[in-house]
Amino acid sequence: MFWASWLLAALAIVLAWPAPIILSRAAWPARAPFTAMVLWQSIALAGGLSMIGAMLVWGLAPLGDDLLAASGAFLDLLSDDASAPDLGVIHVFAISAGVLLFAHLVFTLALTFVRVRRQRARHRNMLRLLSSPSTDQPDTVVIRHPAPVAYCLPGGARSVTVMSDGLMELLTRPELDAVLTHENAHLHQRHHLLLWAFAAWRSALPWLPTSRLAQGAVSELIEMLADDEALRHVDRATLMRAIVIVGSGTPTSMRQESTPQSSQQEEPPGTADAQGDVDVPLAGQDGRGAGSPSAARIRRLLSPLPPLGRVQQASVLATAGLLLVVPPVLLLAPEFLG
Length: 338
Fold this sequence. Notes:
Blueprint: H1 2-16, H2 18-25, H3 33-60, H4 67-80, H5 89-130, E1 131-133, E2 140-143, E3 150-153, E4 160-164, H6 165-170, H7 173-188, H8 191-204, H9 209-231, H10 236-248, H11 251-256, E5 280-282, E6 287-289, H12 295-302, H13 310-332
Parallel strand pairs: 2-4
Antiparallel strand pairs: 1-2, 3-4, 5-6
Helix pairs in contact: 1-3, 2-9, 3-5, 3-9, 3-13, 5-8, 7-9, 7-10, 8-9
């Protein structure tokens, strides 16, 4: 157990600092956004498990040869109110820190979920008053606002895509189809669950580079995945025009320029500050609103890169899988270290 705790601590440090920084600066995620998203999730899960596990394993090491046996012995001590001469103050501190960190992460995840659910309910009630159903698009409502706005509001069977009448006036029919397909992809691929999890992770550990970089990277990656889905239905030029118009709110000049430029647009009532470079979320982490598109997303559409090779993707997925396997092995079966 002693060596397992040190290995877990080393893994936690690597996944908390150099790994997310290196991955956030890499260029290949734009070529394989789904694979990169899997890796980000593995880094977050393995990092959190390693961080908590290192403290628990080190603190419980005097009581057993593995985490399960040591935990059972520790619970017996607590129930019998017996003394444990092998446990020092530093061991008790490590155990307490591990338990508190685990409780903090779980509590923050639950609190974020409750807040998001309440925000969605308030947002949905506002839409009932301020919107009307679309005449030609199912599960779509239209709000009266001159700015080009499009976002999705998750809610299971009650999920809807929201558009402004200003957007409908600015876009052609193919461009509007591109926007709707993009937003529907967010709903069908359950991107809001990822945003919720990484928002909770950042809220719980705002000082950790993993949480900040992961949230920004995942927000960008889900936009790329939604773009890829839209490209299955419309051509690249149409999608590009739609993104620029929605992002800038000035259709005339953008149609005449070959290079898109982002500018400030009037935000609709209820719009929150942007949490990244991709979209402006409405109602917290729920809606995916119209905002200035990121530079990486624009470059990806302007200059398409070849998909990441199968060998490279397999290597990344194998690394992600290994990250999810190593911490549990070190926690439950440290005898494999010899």
